[in-house]
Amino acid sequence: MPVVTVEMWTGRSREQKRALVRAITDAMVTHAGAKPDNLHVIIHEVPKEDWALAGVMGDERKD
Amino acid sequence: MPVVTVEMWTGRSREQKRALVRAITDAMVTHAGAKPDNLHVIIHEVPKEDWALAGVMGDERKD
Amino acid sequence: MPVVTVEMWTGRSREQKRALVRAITDAMVTHAGAKPDNLHVIIHEVPKEDWALAGVMGDERKD
Amino acid sequence: MPVVTVEMWTGRSREQKRALVRAITDAMVTHAGAKPDNLHVIIHEVPKEDWALAGVMGDERKD
Amino acid sequence: MPVVTVEMWTGRSREQKRALVRAITDAMVTHAGAKPDNLHVIIHEVPKEDWALAGVMGDERKD
Amino acid sequence: MPVVTVEMWTGRSREQKRALVRAITDAMVTHAGAKPDNLHVIIHEVPKEDWALAGVMGDERKD
């Protein structure tokens, strides 16, 4: 049943995303006893300029 | 007051979306006694390649 | 595939919630062509005192 | 720790968004005692045609 | 129209929450030109033991 | 920066949840190149009676 939503900056490759959702699905099966059949992993890509940490947008950060 | 968020694959037509939000609004009014005035229905369209079920992305699925 | 999240005040009965999720599921099947098998409807009940409209919390509102 | 998500119609300028996330961050620090370092403010821009109020999509509304 | 969701640890007082939603509403009106009438601010309180930062749950953190 | 939200039925133990957030954090670091410092994993536990699949609530399902 679980639904996992990953909010992260835009920019990962398709291969990274595919490997990521497989690893998260495995983690849910292994540690939460979830059944894969109804286990959704949804990626929300957010532009850096729409995501602030400590009041500073991603595209303005120096780190 | 309620806020209903619909997360689904990209690709429905405007007519489908309009009919959908009306039907969901009606369902909320009929079954949850919600007042339409402050009832929001928000559609989040997610690309197939960003949505995995059972660890497999939508654009890789055979079904 | 779709995931519908309903955020509303605490307080509906189980019968109301059951009728609501059936009606929303029907709306998704009828108007968005969704397959029921992987269609989730998740209800988030939020206390009135944690939900503000126009800056006023639900438990302070006069309407 | 807090994560604040702002869902609103597409269309604000970068300056508006920057000022908005600073003000929301200040509000969280002032009123909720949050530490800025791990305080995220995420903006989800949603097209008017995907957001209904009282069953009517944003791009169809007269007000 | 906007909907602002604040996810934070359980534990703020009602007065803190009321002041917080007023300040966030003001920020949305001032900086995003939002109309207060349909502006929702929803607080999701999450127990520390259900929120991890850097892989460590809130109730296990030393800082 | 990423924020991962896990929505699942109520009922996992603290040990399961701790192991789960560590595994998801590792997956994000390994496959999405995320830095652990600002990586949040938030668990939303939802009662079975508030989560429907194919129009049937979790506490009514036979499987």
CATH topology of chain A: Macrophage Migration Inhibitory Factor
CATH class of chain A: Alpha Beta
Average pLDDT of chain A: 95
Count of DSSP H/I helices of chain A: 1
pLDDT < 50 runs, ≥5 residues of chain A: none
Descriptive account of the structure:
The structure is a homohexamer of 63-residue chains. Chain A is an alpha+beta fold and 63 residues long. The first copy, chain A, has a single domain, classed as 2-Layer Sandwich (Macrophage Migration Inhibitory Factor). Chain A is 30% helix and 30% strand. Chain A is built from one helix and four strands; from the N terminus they run E-H-E-E-E. Chain A has one helix at residues 14-32, and strands at residues 3-9, 40-46, 51-53, 56-57. In chain A, the strands form two sheets. Chain A has a two-stranded parallel sheet. The N and C termini of chain A lie far apart (38 Å). The mean pLDDT of chain A is 95. At the A-F interface, strand 1 and helix 1 of A face strand 1 and helix 1 of F. Chains A, B, C, D, E, F: It is an enzyme of class 5 (isomerase). Chains A, B, C, D, E, F: The active site is at residue 2. Chains A, B, C, D, E, F: Keywords: Isomerase. Chains A, B, C, D, E, F: Its EC number is 5.3.2.-.
Task: Record the SSE blueprint.
Six copies of one chain form a homohexamer.
Chain A: E1 3-9, H1 14-32, E2 40-46, E3 51-53, E4 56-57
Parallel strand pairs in A: 1-2
Antiparallel strand pairs in A: 3-4
